[in-house]
Amino acid sequence: MNRSRIRSILAAAAVVLVAGSVWGGTPLLSSSDSATAPPTAQAQTSATSVGISDSGSLLWSSDAELNTTLSMLAAAGITSFRLSIPWSNVEYTQNQLDWSAVDRVVNAVNARGISILGIIAYTPPWATSPVGQPLNTRPASPALFGQFAGKAAARYAGKISAFEIWNEPNGSMFYGPSPDAAGYTQLLKAAYPAIKAANSSATVVGGVLGAVEDAAGMQNPVTFANQMYAAGAAGYFDALSYHPYQYSLKFADGVYVDHSPARQMMDLHAAMVANGDGAKKIWATEYGVPTAYVSESVQSDMITHFITKWQELPYAGPVYLYQLRDQQTGSGDPEMTFGLLRTDWSGKPALWGVMSLIMNNVPKSAEYNRFQAVPSALGSALSPIFTIRDTWAQIRDYAVVYEMPAGFIAAPRQVAEAVRYTSFLPTTGFNGTWQDFDSPFGLRVFSTSIGGTHLIGGGIVAAWDPTLGPATSDETPVAGGGVRVSFQYGSITWTPAAGAVVTR
Fold first, then answer.
1. For residue range 230-288, what is the model confidence (pLDDT) as tens digits?
2. Closest Cα to residue 383, out of 350, 417, 355, 415?
3. I need a labelling partner for 385 at 20 to 30 A (CA). Which of 103, 120, 351, 404 fits?
4. 407 torsion bin: left (phi>0), alpha (psi -120 to 50), beta (else)
């Protein structure tokens, strides 16, 4: 999670608080309490849908900047936009609602036929506890937050068809004073019925989780999601969202890397399955790579890779890229350089890469098409297709599938997990008891309900025969620099001096 990104939101919000919600220029479209703009496109829910997530600054932009932004979106073929609906600004004074800044952008986006994902977040100073706290402070009253969410859904019915509840509540930078899954769940429980009462067809997106690990002020999104479920979140969101930022590792390259966004994504889906929400999608409502951190060509490569690989997950929803335009091209601050465009509106390579994908309907990769031949009995895909050495692989419900020169080879999930850190590849299929891998020293993985799963080296494997039964232990050191392995009906001890000795 980009912790300093709160600065741009706070700075943009400060403009309207100081200026009293006034900006220069004639509004693009007049706003009123009634819907006047044509109906917008419906919420984009497909994994091939690519939208743009705004930093929050567009609400306070000039009319010229807003028009140029929307023209760029249309030219790029981008049909969805993630927009902040900040409670902190709309109702800065209790019971005095000023929708004008949000109306202006919603009406302008809606007039272009671009769908909107609205983020309902940020607390006005009168609604914090104690009062007068920063806008990232959790609301003192979930009920009042829910009422505001219902008002937003009613006002923008026919214009906004999907709403996110808060932003990255698993980090104190966005949800102060500290992450609290149970507290966040209370916001969901208040907002969900209020939004549905105002617009029964609206999609309510919960979670909105940042890709972090447990640390001061941050909580792992998987832990947070499980705590949400424990607090009763099931039934109070239609999709979960996640922000899989990682600047030094391509998304699919993280499948076998602990704590990577790809691993967190799979674990989030597992939590949803365990709680009866396996059919719901996970939306990537923010993803980006700053060119203060990588070159423009690497940014393009990582973003196009992400879009391509994201759609290989059957439980993945739409992608929203953060963001369209740099806040300050050339800055050493990564937060200033996420754009597909430079500050002068010229396109970076990532813009052309994304446009190419969209113009070609976000095509599937060649490896994805080949993996369609994998038997359906191995279950649905849990990971994108990734590489182990020079071989493609994919995690399915019941096995990891490897694309080998002679064809696909499957390894049971527990076998593949046992060799995950070695990068060894299978040389045989699994025969119900064991499977061999290409270690230069020999490697057999035994896996049975009787003995569990154990990695056994070649010296002991060479002396093993089926009458010993499956392994029931790992290799255990013994005197003389050797190892011993227990089997169902005996053991084998190997030492440099004596070699393998079988005891039955």
1. 999 999 999 999 999 999 999 999 999 999 999 999 999 999 999 999 999 999 999 99
2. 417
3. 351
4. left
What is residue 241's three-state secondary structure? strand
Residue 483 main-chain phi, psi, to 5 deg: -140, 155
Buried b (16+ CB within 10 A) or exposed e, 151-188: bbbebbbebbbbbbbbbbbbbbbbbbeebbbeebbbbb
Evaluate whether 262 touches 255 at the Cβ level (below 8 Å).
Answer: yes
d(Cα 138, Cα 265) in Å, to the nearest integer?
25
Q: Which amino acid is present at 133?
A: Q
Let me know if 467 is exposed, middle or buried by CB neighbors in 10 A (0-12, 13-18, 19+): exposed
- 356-365 tens-digit pLDDT: 999 999 999 9
- DSSP secondary structure of 75-116: HHT--EEEEEEEHHHHTSBTTB---HHHHHHHHHHHHTT-EE
Q: How far apart are CA 281 and CA 264, in angstroms?
A: 14
Q: List, in order, residues 6 or more apart from 490 with CB less than 8 Å away.
A: 468, 469, 502, 503, 504
State pTM to two decimals.
Answer: 0.91
Q: Around Cβ 465, how many Cβ atoms within 10 Å?
A: 8
